[in-house]
Write a structure and sequence with these properties.
The chain has 128 residues and is mostly helical. It is 55% helix and 0% strand. The protein has five helices and no strands. Helix 1 runs antiparallel to helix 2, helix 1 packs parallel to helix 3 and helix 2 packs parallel to helix 4. The longest helix is centred in the first third of the chain and has 20 residues. The protein starts with 11 loop residues before the first helix and ends in a 16-residue tail after the last helix.
């Protein structure tokens, strides 16, 4: 089989599955710009996970935090839990992308580009 294969570190596929399953759940309840932002964040996070698979533990840890921040978004349940918005997740993801030297993954750039049909989407959202 001709093609480039990336060797991935353990845990990479787990993070990507978390992003994908959370995005699938969000697709049921979000529409318009919110859904577009969620899809943009997911593309960025997937790319960050892949590009840091062989990076330092510190870099992988930053990406893991961004994934968990996106995936563990709290929904409001009365007065006790606050809503963590997609905009807050966007700030975290953009900050991580900037720290990792990937300004091509900033979310504002992601929204300007059409979604890729490739199996491995381009990361378009970097952290601020």
């Amino acid at each position: 089989m001709a093609g480039e294969q990336r060797s991935v570190a353990p845990g990479t596929d787990v993070l990507i599955r978390k992003v994908d399953s959370h995005l699938a759940a969000l697709r049921g309840g979000l529409h318009g710009p919110e859904l577009e932002l969620a899809e943009c964040l997911a593309r960025c996070l997937r790319e960050l996970v892949l590009c840091t698979a062989q990076a330092s533990a510190a870099d992988r840890g930053q990406v893991r935090v961004a994934v968990h921040y996106f995936v563990l978004r709290r929904e409001s349940r009365g007065r006790l839990l606050s809503v963590r918005s997609l905009a807050a997740a966007e700030r975290v993801v953009d900050r991580v992308a900037r720290q990792l030297g990937r300004p091509d993954l900033l979310t504002e750039l992601c929204r300007d580009r059409p979604a890729s049909d490739d199996a491995l989407p381009l990361g378009d959202a970097l952290l601020r």
